[in-house]
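Budget justification aside, the reviewers requested a transparent look at the raw inputs and outputs of the sequence design task funded under Objective 1. We therefore reproduce one unedited record. The lines immediately below are the structure tokens for a 542-residue chain.
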């Protein structure tokens, strides 16, 4: 049992190490010849290198001590054992059970939840196989297209993973509609045949206004062309009663429990579109990757534990060094939805103002997460990463191999660029080097100095790199589970509940109250004047 004062002492020591580190240069830390070995971890065929940060031995010791003081290991074990660690919703947190292919019992309130999970997984596999083989058809024949209607966790997980694994697609084409903006639905439906389209309505609660609006509209679109639109419709939800009211028969409903958070739900029924795209076998590989990361997370000592180290580096940069954001930079074009996926995972989980006890967080919440695949980002926002006055820790990701052997030279260039960026961020370019460049361009005197200053890179900008062999379903499963557990560890150390999301409620409520105003009803007294003016304009632009 750790006391509050032990935890605060551990925090103080991290903050103190970070204060010292601010005056150090990362490149100088490489004086230790074995720094790379000491500040990298290999596990599950992946390499996580955090040597290009300001973290030294003392800093890492302080971070590991912080993890111990926050009781990361015992709270981790509590999560896996089905304890109700989501206190504000009084729920267990068991998305890990969805990828527990071992089938080992997982108890919630003295009931083993595994038989039901495995039964649903088998039903998903049967259904996906039937769709892929043409045994389940649309009213115009074999299913050619699948449209997943969902938002947030009911969209980002399967959309990100389906895009990431496109080399493994051998099923119908999967599309994703999330936004209530009719443009999203219209653009997807534009090229589809309603008689050969399968609609998947994905919503844990089956109340989300965007999803229910899109679901009603897509069924209307189908009803013009097919006799029984509901027959080409599947529901993925925890709210089986609401699904029944909607008119989807139980054999096409795939349920899951409330202890699977929306942003952690891709491993179960919410992943059905992915399973249809890549097939049950590859989907099982994806689960196996997640399961392997769970085993690693539960067994590896803190100092060799990938999720723990990722989390500690994250806390070091945000809480310790005071950098407000972090950039996720996959050098893997098919991971182009990963930054959006991680934004929900990290910011909906750890973007909180109070701790589990309802008191203001003493060390603040998680950082702003953003990003874009390389090399595209290099030609857009990397200017700021290298020379802007804000320091942004960069998290690079890169595979050893691509999926296009005929275009291996592209991949070499991709890797070279990824490595070059982390090297450039760290090393920078000094004024004297910049002067040489300016002189070689023919500048002299004051002009030389002015030109040189523009070409100076301060360097000393931290980054980490996660390297993996190749983006297969298994590796993707490992990466997604790695980030889930990283978020968990950060949340535990910050003392917050990573598994609720009360912060999304207020905007939803106000939207409900404002919609009638846009339809012409009289405004209620509490509508702000600015909002009223905008609403008036939007009803009838001047
Ligand atoms: O509004 C936020 C949120 O509740 C997310 O947490 C969730 O992933 C998303 O909406 C969609 O919810 P549902 O799956 O219930 O439609």
């Amino acid at each position: 049992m750790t006391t509050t004062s032990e935890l605060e002492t551990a925090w103080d020591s991290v903050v103190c190490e970070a204060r010292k580190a601010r005056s150090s240069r990362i490149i100088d830390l490489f004086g230790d010849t074995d720094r790379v070995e000491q500040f990298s971890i290999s596990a599950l065929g992946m390499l996580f290198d955090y040597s290009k940060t300001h973290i030294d031995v003392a800093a890492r010791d302080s971070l590991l001590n912080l993890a111990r003081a926050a009781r990361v290991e015992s709270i981790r074990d509590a999560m896996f054992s089905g304890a109700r660690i989501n206190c504000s919703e009084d729920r267990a947190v068991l998305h890990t059970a969805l990828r527990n292919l071992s089938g080992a019992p997982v108890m919630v309130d003295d009931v083993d939840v595994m038989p039901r999970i495995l039964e649903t997984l088998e039903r998903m596999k049967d259904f996906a196989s039937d769709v892929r083989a043409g045994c389940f058809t649309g009213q115009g024949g074999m299913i050619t297209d699948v449209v997943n209607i969902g938002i947030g966790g009911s969209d980002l997980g399967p959309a990100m993973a389906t895009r990431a694994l496109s080399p493994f697609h051998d099923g119908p084409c999967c599309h994703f509609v999330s936004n209530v903006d009719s443009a999203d639905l219209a653009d997807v439906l534009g090229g589809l045949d309603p008689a050969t389209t399968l609609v998947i309505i994905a919503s844990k609660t089956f109340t989300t206004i965007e999803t229910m609006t899109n679901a009603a509209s897509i069924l209307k679109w189908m009803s013009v062309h097919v006799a029984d639109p509901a027959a080409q419709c599947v529901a993925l939800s925890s709210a089986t009663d609401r699904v029944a009211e909607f008119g989807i028969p139980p054999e096409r409903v795939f349920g899951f429990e409330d202890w699977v958070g929306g942003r952690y739900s891709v491993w179960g029924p919410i992943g059905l579109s992915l399973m249809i795209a890549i097939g049950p076998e590859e989907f099982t590989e994806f689960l196996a990757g997640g399961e392997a990361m769970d085993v690693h997370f539960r067994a590896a000592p803190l100092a060799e534990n990938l999720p723990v180290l990722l989390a500690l580096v994250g806390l070091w940069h945000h809480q310790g060094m005071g950098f407000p954001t972090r950039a996720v930079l996959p050098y893997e074009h098919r991971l182009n939805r990963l930054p959006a996926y991680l934004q929900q995972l990290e910011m909906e989980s750890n973007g909180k103002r109070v701790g589990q006890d309802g008191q203001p967080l003493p060390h603040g919440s998680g950082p702003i997460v953003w990003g874009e695949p390389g090399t595209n980002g290099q030609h857009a926002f990397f200017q700021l990463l290298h020379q802007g006055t804000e320091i942004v820790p960069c998290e690079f990701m890169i595979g050893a191999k691509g999926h296009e052997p005929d275009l291996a030279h592209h991949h070499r260039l991709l890797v070279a660029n990824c490595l070059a960026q982390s090297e450039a961020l760290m090393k920078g370019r000094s004024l004297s080097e910049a002067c040489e460049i300016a002189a070689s361009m023919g500048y002299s005197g004051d002009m030389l100095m002015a030109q040189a200053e523009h070409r100076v890179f301060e360097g000393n900008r931290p980054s980490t790199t996660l390297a993996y062999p190749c983006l297969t379903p298994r590796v993707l499963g490992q990466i997604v589970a790695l980030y889930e557990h990283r978020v968990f560890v950060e949340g535990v150390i910050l003392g917050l509940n990573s598994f609720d999301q009360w912060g999304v409620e207020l905007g939803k409520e106000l939207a409900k109250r404002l919609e009638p105003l846009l339809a012409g009803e009289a405004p209620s007294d509490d509508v702000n004047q600015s909002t009223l003016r905008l609403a008036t304009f939007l009803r009838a632009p001047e």
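The pocket of 6-O-phosphono-beta-D-fructofuranose is lined by residues 151-154, 203-205, 208, 211, 262-263, 348, 501, 504 (CB under 6 Å). The longest helix spans residues 473-494. Computational costs for records of this kind are itemized in the attached budget.
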